[in-house]
Amino acid sequence: QISIKRIYTPFEVRNLSYYTNSSVNFENQQVNNEIDLPPKTFDYERLVKNSGNIDEIIYEMVNLFVHYWAEYFNDVKENCNLGRIEKLKKSAHKLKGTALQAGAMKLGGILKNLEILETDEIDGNIFELIKQAESEFINYKNELANYQQFKTILN
Hints:
This protein is an all-alpha fold. It is 60% helix and 0% strand.
């Protein structure tokens, strides 16, 4: 038996045996190979990793996120306006997954904060998070504009 907590550098699960000199049964175990860095507005490296470095998938992940942003985010805002906290959390969760897949790491963090709200009432903090999310999506699109391959998505 090994302790995952003793490995202090990022690693791929398939390489774990290298660090432990043992075979490991990964059934029912979760491994976090994130390092604590401030999230990027647009993390191209994460996008490449999420896509398996396949250009068509990279493009499609970003395209789907940008395309469905308005619809998914409207669900978040509508549930907020109607005071439906649990539905707000679910809407934020759905949008968070799409954002993280598309490399919108900072936005994903904001949406995570909406998803894990510990309140039963709509308050100013929730409206502030929604405002931050809107602003961060604009920042995300501005960063996308620096990449030639995403220009057609923004038009």
